[in-house]
Amino acid sequence: MSAELGFVHRFEPGSSPTTLLLLHGTGGNEHSLIELARHLAPAANLLSPRGKVLENGAPRFFRRLALGVFDEADLKAQAADLARFVGEAAKRYGFDAGRVYALGYSNGANMAAALMLLHPEALAGGVLLRPVLPLKPSTLPNLSTKAAFLAAGRRDPWAPIERVEALADWLERAGAAVELRWQEAGHELHSEELEAAREWLARHLEG
C-alpha cells in the first residue's frame, strides 16, 4: 500500500499486459475489490486507489449532494485527478497505459463511467457493476475502440433502470461496444453476473 501519486493505493503486478483499475463503492477502500479482481482476472495487474472524498467518514470517489444527486463540479475535478493518477502510476509501475480496464462497483462504477465519458484516454473499457449515468458530457467522446460491460439490477433502488439505460445509450452513441446485463436483483451482486463479467474480461483483456 502506498500514498504516493496523490492517492492511497495498492498495486499488485500480474503476468498479463493488462491492468485493472479497481474502483470501490461507498465505504470501501483500496483492499475491497482485490479478491474479486483476482477471481475475475487472475493474471491482470491490479491498481486500486482509495477514494479521496469522505461522506460521514466513508470514502467515495466524488461528492453527492443527496441520494442519487451528484456534485458534477466535484465529479469532474475528481475524474481529472484520477485520470492523472492512472497515467502517473503507469510510469511508476511500468504497465501499459493503453491497456487499463476499470472494475468498479456502485460509486466506483459511476467514476469509471465518468472517466470513459470525460477522459477516454485513461481507460480501454471496463466492467461497471451497478452503474448509472453520472453526468452528461458537454461533447460526445470518441469511444470507438472502447468496450464496457454493465451489470445492473432491475430492483436496484440506487441505480434506477432509466439511468442505467441512459449510460448505456451515451456509451453506445459515443461508439463503445456495450454489453448490458440485467439481473433480477437489487444493489447486491450475484454469482451469475460475476461469471458473465469474468467471461467478458477473458475475451477483452488478452485481445
From TrEMBL:
InterPro entries: AB_hydrolase_fold (IPR029058), LYPA1-2/EST-like (IPR050565), PLipase/COase/thioEstase (IPR003140). One of its GO terms (molecular function) is hydrolase activity. Keywords: Hydrolase. Its EC number is 3.1.-.-. It holds the Pfam family Abhydrolase_2. It comes from the Bacteria. Residues 18-204 form the Phospholipase/carboxylesterase/thioesterase domain. Gene3D superfamilies: alpha/beta hydrolase. Belongs to the AB hydrolase superfamily. AB hydrolase 2 family. This is Putative hydrolase MhqD.
